[in-house]
Amino acid sequence: MIFNSISFALFFLLFFNLYWLINRKLHPGFRNAFTIAASYFFYGCWDWRFLGLIIISSGVDFWVGQAMGKTEKASAQKALLLGSLLVNLGFLGFFKYYNFFVDSLRELLALFDLPIQTHTLEIILPVGISFYTFQTMSYTIDIYRRQLEPTRDPLAFFAFVSFFPQLVAGPIERASQLLKQFEGRKVFQYQEAVGGLRLILWGLFKKTVIADNFGQMTDLLLVAGEASSGPATLLGSLFFALQIYADFSAYSDIAIGCSRLLGMRLMQNFQTPYFSTSLRMFWHRWHISLSTWFRDYVYIPLGGNRGQQWQVHRNLFLTFVLSGLWHGAQFTFLIWGALHGLILIVERQFKLEGPGRWRMPLVFLLVVLFWMPFRAEDMGHLNELLSAIFQLDSYTSAWYHSLFSVYPIRRFVALSIVFFLFTLVEWQLQKADFNEWVQTQQKPIRYACYYALLMGILFLGNFSVKPQFIYFQF
Fold first, then answer.
1. What pLDDT score does 29 carry?
2. 218-243 burial: b if 16+ Cβ within 10 Å, else e
3. Catalytic annotation on 327?
4. What is the pLDDT of residues 318-329, one digit of tens each?
5. Confidence class of residue 394 from pLDDT cuts 50, 70 and 90?
6. 409-459 pLDDT, tens digit each
7. With helix as H, strand as E and coil as C, how does the chain read?
8. Residues 179-233 pLDDT 10s
9. Region 336-345: what's the mean pLDDT?
10. Which of 27, 284, 327, 401 is catalytic?
């Protein structure tokens, strides 16, 4: 079930009514049990076979949390934490990285004329495994650090891990913020529900109008195995930058909006990252839940800002390489993470951060270029894209035929106008989310926004593409 589908709308409408009915009539434990059952049904619509992974991960970490809370021995707590990490990272490593490491080992040994027989497996990546694994790991780590008391309520904990609005692609929530919201009886708040509906509408607009249209054009321009021109490659990279931001932030907005309708608060995951004046600012505004997770559970344990300068740079670089690996089991993602790590080191070394609007287009251009390894299907495709950029004679060719021979030019012009207006709204959202910004407007302007978004979805929404979110593959 995808957020921008009729099936999800019907599912959520039914769930919403039963959720508040159960909350009003019965003990909160029944509401949490119903949430778990609905979340497992939601996840099982992709592949019910992987429900066991969520259940095992939840069960192990609930038990580990209870066990750590009952012992004062540091050695026992460390052993329990290690067991939790082995289970969670073991699942993640096997399903996501087994073939990658096997292939990498074979290629490495081949460089030294040491060929070996290796066997890869036809492994299906469980959707959302990277997200819920990090979420449940943070729970046991925080207990070990004595920053969190273990919960005694298994239903609340299992609901925290499996909560369907953010189960598949985040935001990656901390137990200290989300888990406690499953405790006690909820009170329906009209203004929270209205705010949630605004965020859902904004997310649906970004997904269907911006992400899916620019995504279709990206696919036309960045085709693996076909010769491309420099302008087409650069334009395709720009379109992908717009697609991935609109796609992923749309998912987060809808997840946050659905949660507010249920009386739950999720963290903001994006804050207009393309208006950043440094790469450091970009990472404070892009996928905030993941960035802060790596900061708290990787960068700081490695040493963070402590130690000599080379040690700080090492910590920063390793954190972003691991972030690249989290996104996918390919060298292209490692390159993407390494590039961001290197530029952040340069910014830190030469103190290139701070105010300055003139830096904004430079940072945006850098981010767009860095999206190329992220978008490339493999190293061969990345090599094709980079070669096309340096193919100077292609800049005078009629490269645009590859786009407009398939994509209607009138639709492109209309979409360009809508995107310009979208950018103006995004500029206003640098200090507030869409709901907060709309709240400050006069009533005629608010209703004009609602109708404009609905008309955009109906007349410019791209419903011909497969309704999928990019980050589902991670």
1. 95
2. bebbbbeeeebbbbbbbbbbbbbbbb
3. yes
4. 999 999 999 988
5. low
6. 888 899 999 999 999 999 999 988 999 999 999 999 999 999 999 999 999
7. CCCCCHHHHHHHHHHHHHHHHHHHHCCHHHHHHHHHHHHHHHHHHHHHHHHHHHHHHHHHHHHHHHHHHHCCCHHHHHHHHHHHHHHHHHHHHHHHHHHHHHHHHHHHHHHCCCCCCCCCCCCCCCCCHHHHHHHHHHHHHHHHCCCCCCCCCHHHHHHHHHCHHHHCCCCCCCHHHHHHHHCCCCCCCHHHHHHHHHHHHHHHHHHHHHHHHHHHHHHHHCCCCCCCCHHHHHHHHHHHHHHHHHHHHHHHHHHHHHHHHCCCCCCCCCCCHHHCCCHHHHHHHCCHHHHHHHHHHHHHHHCCCCCCHHHHHHHHHHHHHHHHHHHCCCHHHHHHHHHHHHHHHHHHHHCCCCCCCCHHHHHHHHHHHHHHHHHCCCHHHHHHHHHHHCCHHHHHCCCCHHHHCCCCHHHHHHHHHHHHHHHHHHHHCCCCCHHHHHHCCCHHHHHHHHHHHHHHHHHHCCCCCCCCCHHHHC
8. 999 998 999 999 999 999 999 999 999 999 999 999 999 988 888 777 678 888 9
9. 96
10. 327
Asked whether the predicted pLDDT for residue 107 surpasses 70, the reply is no
